[in-house]
Amino acid sequence: MGDEVDGHEVDRSRASLLTRRLATLTGALVLASAGVAHADDDPVDAGKCQVIKFCVGVGVGDESGGSGGQAGGSSGGSSDSELQCGYTKIEPKPPAEHPAWEGKDPAKYDMYFMSCSDGGLNNPDGFIVVPEGQPPVAQVDPQVLAQRAVDSMTLLGPDIASPRAAGKYTVGVPMWMWVNQSATTYGPNTASASAGGITVTATAQVSKIVWSMGDGASVTCNGPGTPYTSSEGMAQSPTCGHVYSKTSAGAQNAKFPVTATSTWTINWQGGGQAGQLIEVRQTNVQVAVGEVQVVR
Fold it and tell me: How far apart are CA 75 and CA 134, in angstroms?
């Protein structure tokens, strides 16, 4: 049989890890002005700032919020499938002047050390302040969740239906440009992301497509464009089109490089907040433009 690990040794290791992390974060919190120090605070000179030293009595909690049974221990964890957080209450409370309070009254608020992990490289930690007697909750930025929802959508560049790489186009003849519409190439596309008890829902839609035609011209279309039908004859597109005034003979490979750049506008809401994000995607196509050959 292999060596058995003493449960007390595991607890001591956890206690040592948490103590080191608390010491590091506490040491990083400095007062912006020496004037807030009191005679009995035993200030330590730190150049332009002073550090107020205080004793921190903490219980030992594991990373998922379990308690080690000591005074001031963890009050419980908040967890979900993506981000798990543990909390350790700081007792006695730091001085009221300490910047970690962010101006809040220690008589009405409690301070906790928060340590989170998503099982990967995302391991946020720090001090949080909550109303006295209330359990702490994970401090999740709704906009971060909105971006996470957007990332799960797999937004792509325009699915160009016209002009086609295999198409033959002519100088002076109106070109109709349009794109195929799907959830990943045009929208709408909706997705949600959750963490720390907060759910954010985002909806993405292409708001415009800018066409770089390869001849120096740029065309902005505020919709997917209108498909061409033979009954339209030589008419110009009512929504998205271009007329070439020269051939592509002088271009590389005798084709104009056409780029369609879509702007995705994403509206999101959740966690008591709402906002908007922008994403940009591109698609390229090579277009041959010739002249009408007159047979005599």
Answer: 10
